[in-house]
Specification:
The chain has 547 residues and is an alpha+beta fold. It contains 21 helices and six strands.
């Protein structure tokens, strides 16, 4: 509550507004900011029992901007928090404990997950390979997150980019046939023990979601949108003040939450939101299942278990699950797109749903014009292959038709309710102009030419992969898709750690699928004959052939 009389303590308080303003002004960072804005004015507020807030503003009316914010304990007169710069407007940049995922950020939980992620692939009496460096790069985002959780954006933001650039380069090399493993993947444990670890991790993840997770605004938005769809109200515009910007996603996102809202209901407020918890768990499990089926199809049961295990053990997928975000829905739909990639209509439907959940997957539209090898290629066909060319053209036509019909079906409620203008304003336009300090473009500013170059390169890559490489299997498709998504994320102003799971499943399919593509016997026990027969990876008499 704003204090108008600064000379007398409010009821229940010891200090006066005048006194707390003086205390707040003694903070060094705040004093420097106020000094650089000599026309700024301070205001004092009560923030609940025993707490004060002092804020400095520049300008007036609509042009007013808060430049400093200080919290003071009334009993002791001590400053408990002081924020300037981006951290005034962005509370999520202040490193509040548990703001995303509650306890999942604790070092004693995150570190064991990192070890479990690496454990099955630790080299046994062998030299590490490039794949081990790849796994460390995937975990490298943890360093950035640690600084973010300590409100150090100056280190957390730039530390994201080396790992993204490394993964981008690896995916492009894999897609062009370079950097593929020359020796089998060695696992430290048998498939049986990997399954045991997977079951343990799945149970742990669900238990943590139920007992110690929080629903951030993203998951809350899914429940609100589902309720709007069920009740036939306009999907975009006029959202509750508790989540006024929740209508920033594609319609498919809200449709995905409808079954959970119908089963678990919604009270109309930001409560425990069991529907959001259930949706997050379902998206997580379905992504794991999709990875298992995809891996089994590429290289056998063991590869399927490996891919599912990697998802379950990766700390950032648990970060998403414990935040009850919708980002695993994007991952799930992209994995499903790979699963049905050999069918032009099916991949058109799957990719359209992914793109109308969060818009980044739309960049994969050109890539998915062609499926994996086995379908005809459009270019460079000799005259004798005219029937093949016709089949290729038919495949593209079916893909485009299925994609378009899916978009039309998903947008039907928006069109019938004359809600398209609100959709454009609240979703597309809002996302395109959204500023944030979580990328180098938003944190530093003044890099507009460089950002436009990176964005242009990302668009160029998205178009180029429609034509090259000419030969592609499902692993190549996954690597190319990962490269496009990473390139797109490199150029956006608003980036966050939740988005890692958009490309993570594509990356692991590219990395581990390329190992398996070297031959049916490419996954073996790292200890070889030194391990007991019961610890043999495949437990077969065929010398370790993948089932």
């Amino acid at each position: 509550m704003l204090i108008s009389d600064l000379t007398r303590p409010p009821a229940g308080y010891r200090l006066t507004g005048e006194k707390v303003i003086k205390i707040a002004g003694r903070n060094g960072d705040v004093a420097a900011v106020v000094h650089s804005h000599p026309t700024s004015r301070p205001f004092a507020y009560t923030k609940g029992p025993g707490q004060w807030q002092v804020s400095w503003f520049t300008g007036q009316g609509a042009s007013s901007k808060e430049i400093a914010q200080v919290y003071i304990d009334d009993a002791t007169g001590r400053i408990t928090q002081a924020w300037t710069g981006f951290q005034v407007a962005w509370t999520m940049a202040r490193g509040y404990a548990g703001a995303f995922g509650e306890k999942v950020n604790a070092w004693w939980l995150w570190t064991p997950l990192c070890l479990l992620f690496l454990l099955p692939f630790i080299p046994w009496r062998r030299r590490p390979t490039l794949l081990h460096l790849d796994l460390l790069a995937l975990l490298g985002f943890s360093v950035s997150l640690a600084f973010f959780n300590h409100a150090n954006l100056g280190l957390s933001v730039p530390l994201v980019y080396p790992f993204m650039l490394y993964l981008l380069a690896r995916m492009l090399l894999l897609a062009t046939g370079r950097g593929r493993p020359r020796e089998p993947l060695r696992l430290l444990v048998s498939r049986r023990w990997l399954v045991v670890g997977l079951i343990f991790l799945v149970g742990f993840r669900i238990g943590l979601n139920v007992t110690n997770s929080n629903v951030i605004d993203v998951g809350y938005a899914g429940v609100i949108g589902a309720s709007k769809i069920v009740h036939g109200t306009a999907l975009y515009g006029h959202w509750p003040s508790s989540n006024a910007y929740g209508d920033t996603y594609g319609p498919a996102n809200y449709f995905a939450y409808v079954p959970f809202e119908q089963i678990f209901g919604w009270s109309g407020s930001w409560d425990a939101l069991p529907a959001a918890h259930a949706a997050a768990i379902a998206f997580d499990l379905l992504t794991m299942l999709g990875l298992f089926i995809l891996g089994r199809r590429i290289g056998g049961t063991t590869l399927g278990v490996v891919l599912a295990y990697l998802w379950a053990a990766y700390p950032f997928t648990l970060f998403v699950l414990a935040s009850d975000s919708n980002d695993s829905l994007v991952a799930m739909l992209l994995v499903f797109t790979l699963l049905v990639a050999s069918s032009a209509p099916a991949r058109g439907v799957a990719l359209a749903l992914a793109g109308l959940t969060k818009f980044a997957p739309l960049a994969l539209g050109p890539l998915m014009l062609r499926g994996p090898d086995g379908q005809a290629r459009l270019a460079h066909l000799p005259p004798a292959n005219a029937p093949m060319a016709r089949r290729a053209a038919r495949s593209v036509a079916l893909y485009v038709l299925a994609f378009g019909l899916t978009v039309l079906a998903v947008f039907t409620p928006v069109l019938l309710q004359d809600n398209l203008s609100a959709f454009w304003h609240d979703s597309i336009a809002y996302q395109a102009t959204r500023a944030a300090p979580f990328s180098i473009w938003g944190l530093y500013g003044g890099l507009s030419p460089e950002q436009h170059f990176v964005q242009g390169a990302g668009v160029g890559l998205a178009l180029l992969v429609a034509f090259v490489p000419r030969r592609r299997d499902i692993v190549t498709l996954a690597a190319l898709a990962a490269a496009v998504i990473i390139a797109l994320q490199l150029g956006v102003t608003y980036w966050f750690y939740l988005y890692i799971v958009w490309f993570f499943p594509l990356v692991i399919v590219g990395l581990f699928g390329s190992v398996e593509s070297a031959g049916a016997d490419s996954i073996e026990s790292s200890a070889g004959a030194e391990l007991p027969a019961a610890m043999s990876l495949l437990g077969t008499s065929a010398g370790g052939a993948v089932a």
